[in-house]
Batch of 2 targets.
Target 1
Amino acid sequence: MSEMGATPYPPGELEREARAADTRRRWLLSLPALVIIIFAAAGPLLVMVVYSFLTPGDYGNVKWQFSLEGWTNTIVQRDIFDDTLIWADAHLSIFWRSLSLSLITTLLTLIFGVPTAWFIATQPPGKREFWLFLVTVPFWTNLLVRTIAIQELIRSEGVINLVLLKLGIIDAPLQMMFTDFAIGFGMTYVYLPLMVLPVYAAVDKLDFRLVEAAHDLYASRWTAFRRVILPLIKPGIIAGSILVFIPCLGAYVTPRVLGGGKNLMFGNLIELQFGQGRNWPLGAALSLMLMVAVMVALIWYVRVTSREQADGR
Amino acid sequence: MADRPVKQPKGYSVRTLPGFAVLALFTFFALYAPITILVAYSFNAGTSLAIWEGFSLRWYYQAAANEAVQDAAIRSLYLAFSAATIATIAATMAALATTRTRHFPGKTMIYALINQPLMVPEIVTAVALLIVFAAVKVWTGHTSMIYLIAAHTAFCVPFAYLPIRARLETMDTSLEAAAQDLYASPWMTFRRVTLPLMWPGIVAGLMLAFVISLDDVVITEFVKSAGQDTLPTYMLGQLRRVVTPEVNAISTVILVAGAILVTLFFRLTSRRG
Amino acid sequence: MKKLAIAATALAFTATGALAQELNIYNWGNYTNPKLIEKFEAETGIKVTITDYDSNDTALAKVKAGGHGFDIVVPSASYVPIWVGEGLLAETRPDQMENFKNVDPVWVNVDWDPGRKYTVPWQWGTTGVVVNTKYYDGDIDTSAIFMDPPDELKGKINVVPEMGDVMGLAIMYYGGKPCTDDKELLKKVRDGLVAAKQHWLGMDYGNIEKFAKEDLWAGVNWNGSTFRMRLQNENIKYGYPKEGYVVWMDSVGVLKDAQNMDEAKAFQNFIMDPENAALISEFARYANGITGSEAFMPEDMKTAREIQIPAELKDKGVFIPTCAPETQALYTRIWTDLQK
């Protein structure tokens, strides 16, 4: 990508100064966002870092006594019955469940979200924001009310089953409530706008002359989509995927209510430690582990994309 | 802006992708199916959310008489509006600072910090905020909504930032360069060229932030002081006992009010464009 | 920004600098009858604000952190000793209040607050089993309904995810006492729960609709909530496991750092009046522990099986004490294993 407004400076001192000034300006511009986040999100998290190295208090909270157990217990634990050291397979399998469910949800939001964003962005101008708004309206209602409404659709005698029975596609009602299907359906529903909106923002700015050029060169629609459109709207798709995937990992209201809560998600596991389980250090360590994993992936992504940009794409 | 006149053979549009319209319309249908049920049951005569017992406005009357639920709804909207607006302004500035530039010192760090609220399960931020904000509350003796606004703004920032950033990254820079060539001041260039070009990203970011704040339960539950229930925390309390269609009625009112407001807003702004 | 901050301050509710008499109640959501509050406000002129919580642990963590602005809290029995032990509750001596004479003697010398020096009864209830008798007409007064379900009910069972209650029921099913740390027994409990779980459909709260519409047929549930289910579907019946079921009580305490101490005490006294206590029950459908309140209660509550425990099962109800921290840690591990 070209450097917007980059004035050719004479080499040497002047350029270095200009660069420093530019850096300062950019930091200053980011400052409000950084201050808010440091004050009301990242900063307080330092408390969690400290807590993860302490001993659980008797009734929640912590005792000011150094301990590494919060961290070691995330991976290995003493068997409660014969006291042997075992893998904390409960934590691992719960993490795996969250991970795969988040991946599936991201994929589903892509399948439904990208065409929706495309559809909106190709509407006549002036109407687009209205369609965009239509995507977010359902989310003005309360999450729980919405979830209850979804249950109404997938109940044994719910709308979907009734229609399928009427059409003769099935003979007996399908058990959809409290299944993984319900979780996938619900999470896709809840997170769809997080995919549609960033993708829309990217498609809306797509230079259709490039697509046309591809067609002129006898590319099929599919090839044009894959080779021309997709690379151009990639920033939007990646932004959308991040917005969907990461909150999914920690989500628990939707999976609990729709999935029936029989199997914990990673978010529930952490919540359990801060709530009824009364093991705050373990809860803190588990969540920091999750955060570090996601952070590493994200920084890797930034590095890769900025290298792509540097290469001039 | 995005619509340069493009010559196309009749009946052949490069904007059409096979199956996309069908999938999109299906998506809209699926998005609205549960909402239709919700609105329908707000007119249910019975106490049930699921068993239809005839048409009635009783839940609207009841909601109109229930100050607690009204206060909670108004508080939710006020909170979401404040947090989303502040977050979007901050995110727009940050997005301008971190896109379309060489790699400057600290760029990755800014990016990581801005996205940090996304990376921690809500409950963790909630407990951390509880501990820190409680200390501040005790220290200052001040317990207003400002804490909730701060907390919501913080987790709204990445949701506003990412669409705006995505928009900026795909944005054509030639128009801005042209404006500068025509001796427009930087501020003029920004106001007349950059801002309108960014606008869809900003709108997308604002909407996302608004919706995210409106739905938040866990952080609100831990940060709120006495008398600061929002609609979601009010509902969370109901979940353990019983949920009445009163909330459907309130939701329908918010839905309709929101629809009218935003339609008006788009009517006014699209004329300008 | 500045304007917003000012608006925020103006809109916000601050406990400081209040002129009128106020009272801030921190209670379980959807648990306080608005009529009760209206009556209290009318009689005393005190303006009441209610704020909700959804779990004992959240409430405890919040109040312990400070800066909350609440005056009154309503913890469950097994949490009251923790609140007292952490020095969070004020010793308001309800036992010396005017209306204390109305408290049912059964609820005076309770383990968690002997002689009632801190708290006043709010409501009490039981955790037992629920069965839709259309699908199963065998004995329902047993925990086997969810621990070793009959074939008819398999795959349609929901267990409320309340760790203390479910662990208590399961331990008693295997002949133990709640809060036991007998590892041999706990192993049986864990294996039994894990084996039973494959027959469950869900572990979720708030299932009144799903039971009423017969998406769920059986499970572990609270009595008041089952009462509400039965009002929508008469096939639903509440069972008291003869192996032992859980009895619980939520009690009203005043916080040590309450800013409206006198108003809070007035409220404690107020709800020990039978007529007022009846209002509490009328709303959430649980019994209240105040003698004479029955006279003011709705007719359908006087005969309901969910409220009136059958005589032969009365002595099977067990209060879950506050478990030792090490025991609690064991239970958490079993609970995690169950839900992995």
Target 2
Amino acid sequence: MTFEELAGEPRYGAHARTALTLTACAATTALATPLRDHLDLANIVMLFLLTVLFVAVKLGRNAAILASVVSVLCFDVFFVPPRLSLVVSNVQYVVTFAVMLVTALTTTHFTAVLRQRAEEAGRRERRTQALYDLAKRLAGAISVDHVLAATREFLQSQLAAAPVLLLPDKHGDTVIASTPADEVQVEIHVAQVAFEGTAFVRGSDVGGPGRHTTYFPLRGSTRNRGVLAVAFAEGDGEPSAASLSLLDALASLVAVALERLHYADVARSVEMRMLTERLRSSILSALSHDLRTPLTAMVGLADSLTLIKPPLPPAALDVSQALHQQAVRLTGLVGNLLDMARLNAGNVTLRREWQPLEEVVGASIKMLGEALADHPVKVHLDRSLPLVAFDAVLMERVLCNLLENAAKYAPAHSAIELHGKREGDVVAVSVMDHGPGFAATGRESLFDMFVRGVHETASPGTGLGLAICKAIVEAHGGTIEADNRPEGGGVVRFTLPVGNPPIVEDESA
Amino acid sequence: MTTRARVLVVEDERQIRRFVRVAVEEEDCDVAEAACVEAALLEASASRPDLVILDLGLPDGDGVDLIRDLRAWSDVPVLILSARSQEDDKIEALDAGADDYLTKPFGVGELRARVRALLRRHVGREGGPSPVVEFGRVVVDLTRRLVTRDGEAVHVTPIEYRLLSILLTHPGKVLTQRNLLREVWGPARVESTHYLRVYVGHLRQKLEDDPAQPRHLLTETGVGYRFQP
């Protein structure tokens, strides 16, 4: 006998069961009547008890109780003298009835318990098997759609319920339905509550008449991965404890699957980004090499004209010097463009190291050399300046650009001042000149690419210098702004966050 | 009587070789040229140059490998020409044994100055390093471990002195941060660049006229330091 047959229930309705029970009792009575004269009444009782047992096994507890009572009545009416009456001639039959009824009911009870256990075990086994199958399918799922399809099939077969998967939006803090929710009305605010919590939340009944939707948070290892809304079919009422624990297991499986998909996505995009980055930087460095090689030759060849023996006439030397200057300028422009391309590509890798500002200031001034010949630089750095974490090469770029700009617009022999001091959480560096200052309008856009100040139109430049400064300073988490000094002259001020400078111990000696 | 110094120029770009040759010949040197690593090694072992000027981006191999090969049997000064702006390549070349670098593009004047300095040091080296080094208003007596400025003794701590003496015994040479950290603090501290920077800052405070615009203890940004006599 298979379990399905043992369970029996789904095959007959309540009325059919009653009818079958009564038929069984009638059949037993009919069968036993001709044997009345040959069998003891005790054996007839046995036949009825067998019938009750059979009914209990086949038709369940209620039918068996009915069979017990009907059997006792049939036995009384058709077999115990006087026949065809409920009256009993001998009082000892009352004992027979009592024992018969008790035996029948006890049989009914134990059979029913046994059936129930078998049924439960069977259901558990089927669910375990279904969960196992689901886990296998989810492990192989390569998209959210696969996960949803597997979940839908599982719920359909196990609980006759329908799922909706709600996933976080791109900011990760609110959930949105990932599937068209035509079959299930989702209450997004309830889903949100479930998403932010750790336990399931029951929806209110507004989701649809007779529908019960329950929202299970999909708990991943670090955060909730979404919400699984499960709508039960009409008329099923509240989900049972067993269903809830099944749904809990389902929710963890789905969460694990989504988490796996998430990390697979992350790994893929990181790899993609690395490849793009590598490609971009190799293109840039190839471009940089290819552009700089002829420029190097131009700068050097123009320069070497001055060494030719016998010396060139002065006019030719003038031309060679002009050639040299233009080649140097072109080199600067190309360098700026390449730098901007590198910075603009985003993801600049900063080589931040803790260092004193003084050092990079000195290096920048030395690097500019001749360009600052007409402009003495006065450096005022507070003695108490902390070490700051920055990329020295890029910061040198910032300072060179600012100092060069200042030198370009300030009148000859006027000093350029460079101040550095701590202001709360930042170190502020200002480069000040005695030039005409910045025009009152469009000061913010000075730091945009290819934008040039009003005073600049007459002098050479691409308008990239300040944009490069801005990109570098902002990559360091700082700010940059241009202003005019009350006493005249422009000032560009930038800040760098102080952070937590490491301590350099003094020597014990 | 002095013989003319021999300079080997290793560079694959013909036009760059051409003006480098003109500039170097102006310094009274004989110039040999090579366009690839293989030719450079042959030429170097045959002519025993007094200076090698080397482009890092050679077509048939890395210039850094050439430096390592060269260093196996020669202490000839090596001047790097680097078209790449990446500091890593320069650091690698310097750690492999190169003495100095020029970033492309560079002027003839700059090139001649470097060539002069490297040749002078190479010749001067034969007498061993001088025990007394003078720069600016500072005199350092390396045998007596004595530092004076304007004739007055300057107190330097043991670490400062070690750092100073390493810089002074390699005049003009670019010493990488790693190199200095290893020499002064030991191999465990090669990543602690802020120590190096802070101590160089101390030395500048004590020995430079304007510590913010040093003239002798120079920073090669992103690479290391150089003592300029």
